[in-house]
Automatic annotation (TrEMBL):
Name used for this protein in its record: EXLDI protein
NCBIfam families, per the entry: EXLDI
Domain of life according to the entry: Bacteria
Length: 139
């Protein structure tokens, strides 16, 4: 699991959005394409330093033709977004992907976050929460 770091996200429409910044660690992400793969929603879940849960979503619509029509089932296409620079990549490139609505929701409880995400992401978040033990090695 990532360490806490500064997170900078956009909120609004790709053509007119505001930047929001907070301290958190990424705890999961998921891309949910539409049936025609020409639109979809990218979800990134965070645990904030103050113990809340944040969900940043990017709802893409009418992707240009050059965007791949199929997203791998394991979401491998989105792996680069897990790097610290991933947030900057997605926010900076949103316009290149077409129209997008950027939203940030904050939840007091983990269960509230689970109710706001696709079931696949909820399952991943539950699994990650149960296996967050890190063995510190003295090597």
């Amino acid at each position: 699991m990532e360490d806490y770091r500064e997170v900078d996200v956009g909120v609004g429409h790709t053509s007119d959005y505001q930047r929001k910044r907070f301290i958190a660690r990424r705890i999961g992400e998921w891309y949910a394409p539409s049936a025609d793969a020409r639109s979809g929603t990218y979800h990134v879940a965070y645990e904030t330093q103050k113990g809340r849960y944040a969900l940043h979503t990017q709802r893409f619509e009418n992707w240009p033709e050059q965007v791949p029509a199929q997203v791998p089932e394991d979401n491998a296409w989105w792996t680069d977004a897990t790097a610290p620079e991933g947030d900057a990549f997605w926010n900076a490139s949103a316009e290149a992907w077409g129209s997008a609505q950027l939203e940030l929701h904050v939840f007091e409880r983990f269960e509230e976050l689970l109710g706001a995400v696709p079931r696949q992401l909820a399952a991943n978040l539950e699994r990650a929460r149960q296996s967050t033990t890190v063995e510190e090695l003295d090597i």
